[in-house]
Every structure is written in structure tokens, then in C-alpha cells.
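TASK: fixed-backbone design
INPUT:
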């Protein structure tokens, strides 16, 4: 079991920056990859960025060049540095952890989410 807690959300003006954190507890060593998702009102939850246990990263086209996902060497915590924020980045941001990815029995864990609002 893995528990995830996000923090760092808030209200920021367009062009500003925020850094989100995701603190994991429980079976941290079993985590294969971690991701950030977001969900805006009336829209489906979408993948923002992923980082694997090897440190490889991937981003949604909408955030490339503006967002950076990272983690420390112990995989915990994970961060999402968000720069040049736009009103369309407004959403609840969720942290997700995947375990069992290479055993054929994946399990997914979610945090409770943190609100990011970009507005002047």
C-alpha cells in the first residue's frame, strides 16, 4: 500500500510559478513510476507528467517547456515545478503512484488532490 499527499497548490497570476509536492508513505520501494494528473471543472482527468524509477520523464504537449517533474534519489517526495502558468492550467492536480508495473499486476494509488488556480 502507498499513501500520497499533495501540497503546494494555490492562487497565482498568469505567468507566475508554483511548485507542487507529493509525499509518499508506505511501500515506497515498490513504486515503479509516479505521475501528475489534473482535472479542470467539466473536463476529464488528464496526464500532465510522468517520471519512472529510472528517472525518465514524459510530458503532455500542453505543458512541455513550462513544467518539470522531478524527485529525489529516494523517490520521495516528487515535485512538479510549474512556470509560465496560464489560466488554462487551472485544475485540481493529483499525484499518482504505480506499483507492480513489471509483474503483470499493476496497482495504482492516488492522492487527494491540490487546487491550482491561475487568475489575475
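OUTPUT:
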Amino acid at each position: 500500500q502507498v499513501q500520497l499527499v499533495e501540497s503546494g497548490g494555490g492562487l497565482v497570476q498568469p505567468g507566475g510559478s508554483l511548485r507542487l509536492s507529493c509525499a509518499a508513505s508506505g511501500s515506497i520501494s515498490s513504486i515503479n513510476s509516479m505521475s501528475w494528473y489534473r482535472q479542470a471543472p467539466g473536463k476529464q482527468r488528464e496526464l500532465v507528467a510522468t517520471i519512472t524509477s529510472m528517472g525518465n520523464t514524459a510530458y503532455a504537449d500542453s505543458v512541455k517547456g513550462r513544467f518539470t517533474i522531478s524527485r529525489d534519489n529516494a523517490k520521495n517526495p516528487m515535485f512538479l515545478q510549474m512556470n509560465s502558468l496560464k489560466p488554462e492550467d487551472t485544475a485540481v492536480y493529483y499525484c499518482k503512484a504505480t506499483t507492480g508495473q513489471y509483474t503483470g499486476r499493476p496497482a495504482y494509488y492516488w492522492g487527494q488532490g491540490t487546487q491550482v488556480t491561475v487568475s489575475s
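COMMENT: The mean pLDDT is 94.
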